[in-house]
Write a structure and sequence with these properties.
Blueprint lengths: L11 H18 L13 H9 L6 H13 L6 H25 L1 H4 L5 H7 L12 H21 L2 H33 L10 H4 L6 H24 L3 H30 L13 H14 L7 H8 L1 H19 L8 H22 L11
Helix pairs in contact: 1-3, 1-13, 1-14, 1-15, 2-11, 3-10, 4-7, 7-8, 7-10, 8-10, 11-12, 14-15
Length: about 375
């Protein structure tokens, strides 16, 4: 049996995956170009839309990496409980702080009465990216049970993982399949969005928390099977992962493109793609490709160690920085957004490192 992870060793390929995940998040949230979809759109705009399919792997990668790192480690229940409670407090702080800090940006100011009635709302564009924290903490609440299954008969853990994958991604696959059939047969668009009747009535893994749990378990399964995967010649596994990644992104892009044209507005293949089999395939392929990254890079290591802080504060910095950046038309392109995402990553990292030097404040970004 593969020995568990002890202490805090640097796993270079996992550092790389965390850096890739946070960079994809920043590109998604920091998109500067017009992502409209229309019938006569040029090839360049079509490719730009299709390229966004890769971004759907951003948050799932974080859940995956959490499972990979936590499940093999020896468990300290007291330490885990303290960490979970601290994350709850940190999340509550950022829910409230972002609602206040972004009032000047949106020009929407709260009165005392409206603030206290709306303060816990995850509002689109303000603080709704914090759904990730809620889903992660939901998995942490179940972690002792998952850890017991992982450390016991490993077959039980694999069974749980398979059930979670089937119900989470199978439900969305049924949604997409029925939607496509209706479009072809009746020219009618309608999605259940994870309320597909066959799954809904007995699915304990519904909504975003189920998504988080499925990817978390997959991360643990990947760790358990990694030695077998590494036994496959790198040439063949890299070829299979590359082809698989391209196919998954293409299929998600095609579905999103067709749905967008029918609806008359963009079908966001990132937000709606998290629980599709295509994003699941992309995450698996990116993990396989990451096995090639076996060297330490100082910048990658620092970013990896600060992904939580970057995730929490990046959107605030983006909101106030982007109006100045968008004055340059060259930045309102795919290459411009890629450059901006990298710059935003470095700026946010710098802010995060400074905040970590301040007593008490450091706990809000780590």
């Amino acid at each position: 049996m593969k020995p568990g992870i002890k202490g805090n060793p640097r796993l270079h390929h996992i550092d790389f995956l965390k850096c890739l995940a946070i960079y994809l998040v920043l590109i998604y949230h920091g998109t500067l170009y017009n992502n409209a979809v229309y019938p006569d759109m040029p090839v360049s705009a079509l490719l730009r839309y299709f390229s966004r399919s890769l971004l759907s792997a951003c948050v799932p990668l974080f859940f995956f990496v959490n499972g990979y790192l936590l499940l093999p480690r020896p468990m300290d229940l007291k330490k885990h409980t303290r960490k979970m409670l601290r994350l709850m407090v940190v999340t509550c702080f950022w829910v409230l702080f972002l609602r206040l800090a972004l009032q000047p940006y949106f020009g929407d100011y709260y009165t005392w009465e409206t603030f206290w009635t709306d303060c816990w709302e995850l509002r689109d564009g303000w603080n709704n990216q914090l759904w990730y924290m809620g889903s992660l903490i939901s998995v942490y609440l179940l972690f002792p049970v998952l850890k017991s299954a992982f450390d016991g008969d490993r077959r039980n853990f694999f069974w749980l993982t398979a059930v979670a994958v089937f119900l989470v991604f199978g439900s969305k696959a049924a949604d997409l399949g029925v939607t496509v059939l209706r479009l072809l047969a009746r020219n009618e668009y309608n999605m259940y969005y994870n309320d597909f009747p066959v799954f809904y009535m007995f699915n304990p893994f519904s909504y975003r928390s189920g998504l988080a749990l499925a990817y978390f378990c997959l991360g643990g399964a990947a760790w358990a099977l990694e030695q077998r995967l590494q036994a496959v010649p790198a040439r063949w596994r890299n070829l299979a992962a590359t082809v698989g990644l391209l196919l998954c992104c293409a299929m998600l892009g095609i579905i999103g493109w067709r749905f967008s044209l029918y609806r008359g507005k963009v079908w966001d293949q990132v937000w709606h793609g998290y629980d599709t089999v295509f994003t699941l395939g992309s995450v698996a392929c990116l993990y396989v490709l990451s096995l090639n990254w076996q060297r330490e890079v100082a910048l990658v290591k620092v970013i990896s160690a600060n992904t939580l802080g970057i995730y929490l504060i990046h959107d605030l910095i983006h909101k106030y920085l982007s109006p100045s950046v968008m004055q340059f038309t060259s930045m309102q392109t795919l290459p411009g957004t890629l450059v901006y995402g990298a710059a935003l990553l470095l700026i946010t990292l710098g802010v995060c490192l400074v905040l970590k030097k301040i007593p008490l404040v450091k706990y809000l970004v780590s």
